[in-house]
Specification:
- The chain has two domains: 4-55 and 214-278 and 370-426, FAD/NAD(P)-binding domain (3-Layer(bba) Sandwich), CATH 3.50.50; 66-94 and 147-208 and 281-367, 2-Layer Sandwich (D-Amino Acid Oxidase, Chain A, domain 2).
- Helices cover 31% and strands 26% of the residues.
- It is built from ten helices and 22 strands.
- Strands 1, 2, 3, 10, 11, 12, 13, 21 and 22 form a nine-stranded mixed β-sheet that branches. Strands 6, 7, 8, 14, 15, 16, 17, 19 and 20 form a nine-stranded mixed β-sheet that branches.
- Strand 2, helix 1 and strand 3 form a beta-alpha-beta unit.
Length: 427
């Protein structure tokens, strides 16, 4: 649609079929799938470029083998370690406990064996389609160098954690997932520069690896623009209903769409709460730090040190050390304690040199208690759609959920049952 000048207000009005709010992996993917189905789309973000927030800082895995989401543990000893802030994979701010505890209780309840199985079955069609959808967009965007088909390795230092990992693999195999169980010699073949004593490992060969997740989001946004889409920096929190559509205050006037998609990840509640929706969106913060490898050392796969709670990934910028979850207020100052705790172990595992980053990066993972995203139409506002809450799998699921949302918005038969992702499941 063309821009118009409102003669009564002398304000430029930029019109489109759909306003997609948020230019992370989830929002960009939704914009591309809507565009492919003939919709004129404006992509809106507070940044001038795509992929500047959560989509920049993840481990780079397209987790096509992770059928079961990250559920809250029910092991009393592990919970005690969490409560005492002794576990490297989880940390919390005591001062923020009243803020996140109600959500954490819902998360715990949803993480029962029955709840985990329900979430796994609901997410399975999205997980199974995740790599295929990325491969199609990567080919169209012309960035094949941003996808490596190496899979990733999960290391275990004790027989107990190895046995637990093998049990999880056996559970995943019922959904068609396969992996290789490695002994110490096989680990050394795949990763000769690792040091330490390991009970074993699991190599998940199917997942893809993205050595620069932020660059991939930008490549998808560039594809969207080449195909006629518009990317405008504006404040999504100004969203209001306007004459049967939706309006955002743009830099030079109003942006108006017949429909709007909230795909703002951890900031989605800044928009849906003022509209009266009480969706229990929680935040898991996380950190990363890039370090240079020493000498000629090479890391061939992303490697998770299960017992010590961190992951190393061979990014273009350097070896990325990523942490587990931090429970804190979304916008509280960074506290990279998990980086400090895990860095010595990471240096023992792999020959790491100096830090490339001046300070650790902090991101925010948007999570619902059942670890499933919210995808679908807002119950009380015609033309308003949700696409957020992808937990640890925003990179993995963005293109798949973008396709599902676009099929729902354009009247196609959805490739997956959308009911488990409806916001109404929370009452």
């Amino acid at each position: 649609m063309r821009d118009n000048l409102n003669p009564e207000t002398c304000v430029t009005v930029v019109k489109a079929d759909v306003l997609v709010l948020g230019a992370g992996m989830v929002g960009v993917s939704a914009a591309l799938h809507l565009q492919k189905r003939g919709r004129d789309v404006i992509l809106v973000d507070r940044h001038e470029k795509a992929g500047e927030e959560t989509s920049y800082g993840n481990a780079g895995l397209i987790e096509s083998a992770s059928v079961f989401p990250y559920m809250f543990p029910h092991d009393p000893l592990q919970i005690l370690r969490y409560a005492l802030n002794l576990s490297p994979e989880a940390h919390y701010h005591l001062s923020a406990l009243p803020t996140f505890l109600p959500w954490l209780i819902r998360y715990f309840r949803a993480s029962s064996p029955e709840g985990a199985m329900r979430s796994a079955k609901a997410a399975l069609p999205l997980i199974q389609r995740s790599l295929t959808e990325h491969e199609a967009l990567i080919a169209e965007a012309g960035v094949p160098q941003l996808l490596r088909k190496t899979g990733w390795i999960k290391l275990f230092r004790s027989n107990a954690t190895l046995a637990k990992g093998i049990a999880e693999l056996d559970r995943a195999r019922q959904f068609g997932v396969e992996a290789d169980v490695l002994d110490a010699a096989a680990i050394a073949v795949r990763e000769p520069n690792l040091s330490g004593t390991f009970a074993g490992a699991i190599h998940w060969p199917a997942p893809g690896f993205i050595p620069d997740p932020g660059a991939l989001a930008k490549a998808y946004a560039a594809l969207f623009i080449r195909k006629g889409g518009r990317f405008i920096a504006a404040d999504a929190r100004t969203l209001t209903q306007s004459d049967g559509g939706w309006r955002i205050d743009g830099p030079n006037g109003a942006l108006i769409g017949r429909e709007a998609v909230i795909a703002l990840g951890p900031w989605s509640d800044d928009v849906f709460r003022p509209l009266g929706y009480a969706i229990p969106l929680g935040i898991k913060r996380g950190y990363h730090l890039h370090l240079a490898p020493r000498g000629n050392a090479v890391l061939h796969h992303p490697v998770l040190d299960t017992d010590r709670g961190y992951l190393l990934a061979p990014m273009n910028r350097g070896i990325r050390l990523t942490t587990g979850a931090e429970f804190a207020r979304r916008d509280a100052s960074p506290t990279p304690i998990q980086i400090e705790r895990t860095l010595p172990s990471a240096r023992d595992l792999f020959p790491l040199g100096e830090a490339v980053d001046a300070t650790p990066w902090m991101g925010r993972r948007p999570c619902l208690p059942d670890m499933l995203p919210v995808i679908g139409q807002a119950a009380r506002h015609p033309g308003l759609w949700f696409d957020f809450g992808h937990q640890h799998h925003g990179l993995t699921l963005g293109p798949a959920t973008g396709r599902l949302l676009a099929e729902m918005m354009t009247g196609e038969t959805p490739f997956a049952d959308p009911k488990p992702f409806a916001a109404e499941r929370f009452g």
